[in-house]
Amino acid sequence: MAGPAMRGARAAFLDLAPKVETFRDAVIRGLTSRRKSLPAKFFYDVEGSALFDRITALPEYYPTRTEIGILERCGPEIAAVLGPGVQLVELGSGSSVKVRLLLDRLAGPAGYVGIDISREHLRAACDRLAAEYPGLEVLALCADYMAELVVPPPSTGTRRRVAFFPGSTIGNLDPEEAQGFLARWRPELAGGGMLVGVDLKKAEATLDAAYNDAAGVTAAFNLNILARINRELGGTFDLSAFAHRAFYNGAEGRIEMHLVSTRPQIVSAAGRRFSFAEGETIHTENSYKFTVPEFQRLARGAGYRPERVWTDPDGFFSLHWLVAG
After folding, report:
1. Beta-carbon contacts of residue 168 (< 8 Å; ≥ 6 apart)
2. Dihedral sign for Cα atoms in the order 144, 303, 325, 66
3. Are 139 and 11 in contact (CB under 8 A)?
4. Quick count: other Cβ atoms within 10 Å of Cβ 177?
5. Which of 275, 202, 186, 183 is nearest to 236 (CA)?
6. Co-location of 197 and 283 in the same domain
7. What is the DSSP string of 242-311?
8. pTM as predicted
9. Of 36, 165, 229, 279, whose Cβ has the fewest other Cβ atoms within 10 Å?
10. CA 192 to chain centre
11. How confident is the model over 308-321, as a mean pLDDT?
12. How confident is the model at residue 160 (pLDDT cuts 50, 70, 90)?
């Protein structure tokens, strides 16, 4: 196991990423199911991560700028609640943009660990952080943070570990899965807790626009998972034969994203053949929306104590501080 980063140097790197067979197995399992699906976590290869970065800057996509606004406005208060000397562990770190708003305000953080499944994107982002914060131990941990995972401590030791899980990614999980995920992380956070971004319920028109942007970037992001299958698993998907579809399912309280086959077709990938009827879909992502009380009940069920919540003036988004019991 790699040690922590040397201060002032490039980020240390630890590779625990799933092997390509994991992606292969997920694709075969998902495309042979009665209702075809693909896990959203596989969106984030290098191309997918870059497309998602573009999505976050779109005028229709409110979550990123709203969460950043909360961190800018409430950052000093949030940092005071998290406390001094913490090891900050970012789950799904991406470009590590938001975490800077915490690092700039935290008192003497013991270290930073960025965890992401996109290897090169992660290494580049953590190297930038290591250069910008030369007094901070930075570790890039390439791994699936949804799986069982032990995070190395900083070399100086720490009284508290805080997980930062921004961007409403918790909403990509079914509520039972979200509760199980929170419960799995709780032992790693004993004495600390989790700061988690949660998208709130709002007008359907606002949600629809956020996932069906006029520039088509979200559509390209959705279709990229088929391009990834072509690149990595020898797939023969014709991307022009699939269409992006996103809509709000009010009964489930979630946005659903699908890829719709526009004609009957047979596609090969991973040494297998998959048939599609016209109009048949591949379900690629859910994004659940919550009220504050709904999410707090979920967190309590995972053994946390919801202690604080910060929202924007419009009530679009929330940041929850959950104390690990």
Report:
1. 63, 67, 197, 198, 199, 287, 317
2. positive
3. yes
4. 14
5. 275
6. no
7. EEEEEEEETTTTEEEEEEEESS-EEEEETTEEEEE-TT-EEEEEEEE-B-HHHHHHHHHHTTEEEEEEEE
8. 0.91
9. 279
10. 21
11. 98
12. confident
Kindly state whether residue 221 falls inside one of the protein's structural domains: yes
Check whether 4 has a pLDDT greater than 80.
no
> What's the domain count of the chain?
2
Q: Which residue, chain included where needed, has tokens 């009284």?
A: 159
Whether residue 27 lies inside any domain: the answer is yes
Q: How confident is the model at residue 99 (pLDDT cuts 50, 70, 90)?
A: very high
Same domain, 105 and 195: yes
Instruction: Tell which wins on pLDDT, 7 or 46.
Output: 46
- Domain span at residue 24 reads 20-58+211-288
Mark whether 99 and 172 lie in a shared domain.
Answer: yes
Residue 8 clears pLDDT 50, i.e. is over it: no
Same domain, 81 and 49: no
Report the largest interatomic distance among the alpha carbons of the chain, rounded to a whole angstrom: 60
Average of per-residue pLDDT across 156-164: 83
d(CA 307, CA 163): 15
